[in-house]
Specification:
One of its GO terms (molecular function) is hydrolase activity. By secondary structure, the chain is an alpha/beta fold. It contains eight helices and eight strands. An eight-stranded mixed β-sheet has the order 1-2-4-3-5-6-7-8, with helices on both faces.
């Protein structure tokens, strides 16, 4: 956790950046300036929906900036102050903000790619599925591609863990918030990343979601990484994960 914060601070030194309010929460825009139209990577932090923040989540900003790509890192209200339904609503609102307002900050609303780690991978999945876009006034294809890391795509098992002491979901509520169980009609390019030393449950969740998403989904297993450090490979330009993200963004 300390590395996330330290590397994020180091990555944004000297980069153009703005912190703005969306829907009563904040997001940071890094590596873009008015007059540009840069593709956008939106990163959603993990922490089982109840820890971490945008301040721990910008470690990829410099590497992406060097390739002409902006980074947007939203905060969301953490549980138990917010329900998981509200957290999902907030991250969807962040995408709607980028689509409506991002152009004034140098972002290209037509090239939004989303990603996140662990619980952030779950939230990424909730941005990938169909059915929410009309409520927020955005096109069905507002998200063009995605890269979830060690994502939770069927969260029903959470109801049997200590996490549920804070999240407080029943099985029906968990099913309604599980991307694996929700419609995925528009299948855009996705890279599902897991670590070679990830927990077996996380690997199985990504394999199942790959099957659910179909041929547009690629599973990338990163050797010699674990659940917590695999996402830090985005901070360097010469890793397989970073190269895969650049390829994904340039494909949209």
């Amino acid at each position: 956790m300390r590395r996330y914060r330290r590397m994020s601070r180091e990555a944004v030194v000297g980069l153009p950046g703005r912190s703005v309010v969306y829907d009563r929460e904040r997001l940071d825009v890094w590596g873009a300036a008015p007059g540009e139209a840069r593709p956008v990577f939106v990163f959603l932090h993990g922490g089982y929906w109840m820890a971490l923040s945008r301040h721990d989540s910008a470690f990829m900003a410099r590497s992406l900036n060097d390739r002409g790509i902006a980074t947007v890192v939203p905060d969301y209200t953490l549980a138990p102050e917010a329900t998981l339904e509200e957290i999902v609503r907030q991250v969807r609102a962040s995408i709607a903000w980028i689509h409506r307002e991002g152009g004034a900050f140098g972002l290209d609303p037509g090239r939004i790619v989303v990603g996140g780690s662990s619980a952030g991978g779950h939230l990424t999945g909730m941005l990938m599925v169909d059915g929410w876009q009309r409520e927020f006034g955005v096109p069905d294809d507002v998200v063009k591609a995605a890269m979830p890391f060690s994502g939770l795509f069927d969260i029903r098992p959470i109801t049997r863990t200590y996490v549920n002491d804070t999240i407080r979901l029943d099985l029906a509520g968990a099913a309604a918030l599980s991307p694996l169980l929700l419609p995925a009609g528009r299948r855009f390019p996705v890279v599902l990343v897991v670590a070679g030393h990830d927990g077996s449950g996380f690997v199985e969740q990504s394999r199942r979601f790959q099957d659910h998403w179909g041929p547009a989904a690629e599973l990338m297993v990163v050797p010699d990484r674990d659940h917590f450090d695999v996402v830090l490979d985005l901070a360097a330009s010469d890793t397989a994960v970073s190269r895969a993200l650049i390829k994904l963004i340039r494909s949209v």
